[in-house]
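User: Just a sanity check before I run the rest of the batch. Below are the structure tokens for the first item. I only need the designed sequence back.
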């Protein structure tokens, strides 16, 4: 199996890992899960994280062919369109993106102008599809559970797992977002754990449990043996009970609302208004809480009094 060169970039604000996977022979590369920076309090978007990736690609003399999204992230915005504007490349996602778009189009009250067919992305990949990065062959693997549309990408001897697996001491990602499924995640993890032991496993997030140093790469063999959630002899029933109990204690990611409505558009922002201003919506109590519409109706009535 061919070896791919992997360079990581870590965003400490969202604990996200972005990767540049390159073919040493041809100089072609793919970027996996790029970050667009958002200061939520001020509504300020910036490209610091993406610019670091761009600088590395340019200084290394690489040619960007693909921008691979492992899923519609709920914790950071994607900088895929910005990277594409600067360096080219095609933006790719798994085919179940249509499920995500249909679900969140309702939550964000999108009108008929928002396409729900994945057409915002250049390439929509099915489970088992292959792609190329220079002279390296990549495989797309559907790994639902965290979301119904999650993908992992194997390029040469490297496997980019998104949020399906974390480092062995951190386990796995949550499954309580719309369409998430703990049993499906268990099955997806074991699908990946059937790959050769020496396969390098690159995670999308590292939250550095117990304040340990950053870690982002393991092997399939290490994951199969040591992952605290799915390693060893842990059964599906044990995993589902653990995962559902743990997820019930977790709060929503800070950037979930701006992230979802941007990332389901392949990283493009919603259309500007008639005055040319860009806005992101905050649907009230869309994920939890009481129905607040009576208060809104009362406010509307009071305006006419």
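Assistant: Here's the designed sequence for the first item:
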């Amino acid at each position: 199996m061919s070896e791919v060169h992997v360079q990581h970039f870590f965003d400490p604000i969202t604990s996200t890992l972005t990767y540049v996977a390159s073919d040493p022979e041809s100089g072609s590369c793919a970027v996996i899960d790029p970050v667009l920076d958002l200061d939520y309090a001020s509504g300020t978007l910036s490209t610091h994280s993406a610019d670091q990736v761009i600088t590395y690609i340019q200084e290394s003399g690489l040619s960007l062919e693909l921008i691979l999204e492992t899923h519609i992230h709920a914790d950071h915005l994607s900088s895929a369109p910005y990277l594409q504007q600067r360096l080219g490349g095609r933006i790719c996602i798994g085919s179940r993106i249509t499920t995500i778009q249909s679900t969140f189009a309702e939550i964000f009250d999108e009108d008929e102008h928002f396409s729900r067919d994945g057409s915002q992305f250049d390439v929509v990949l099915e489970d088992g599809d292959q792609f190329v990065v220079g002279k390296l062959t990549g495989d797309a693997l559907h790994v639902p559970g965290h979301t119904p549309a999650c993908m992992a990408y194997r390029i040469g001897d490297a496997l980019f797992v998104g949020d399906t697996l974390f480092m062995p001491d951190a386990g796995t990602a949550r499954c309580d977002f719309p369409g998430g499924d703990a049993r499906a995640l268990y099955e997806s993890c074991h699908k990946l754990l059937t790959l050769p032991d020496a396969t390098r496993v690159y995670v999308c997030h590292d939250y550095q449990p117990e304040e340990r140093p950053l870690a982002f790469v393991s092997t399939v063999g290490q994951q199969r043996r040591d992952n605290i959630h799915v390693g060893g002899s842990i059964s599906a029933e044990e995993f589902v009970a653990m995962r559902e109990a743990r997820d019930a204690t977790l709060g929503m990611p800070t950037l979930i609302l701006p992230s979802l409505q941007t990332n389901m558009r392949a990283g493009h922002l919603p259309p500007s208004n008639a005055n040319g201003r860009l806005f992101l919506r905050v649907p009230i109590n869309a994920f939890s809480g009481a129905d607040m519409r009576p208060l809104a109706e009362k406010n509307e009535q009071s305006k006419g009094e």
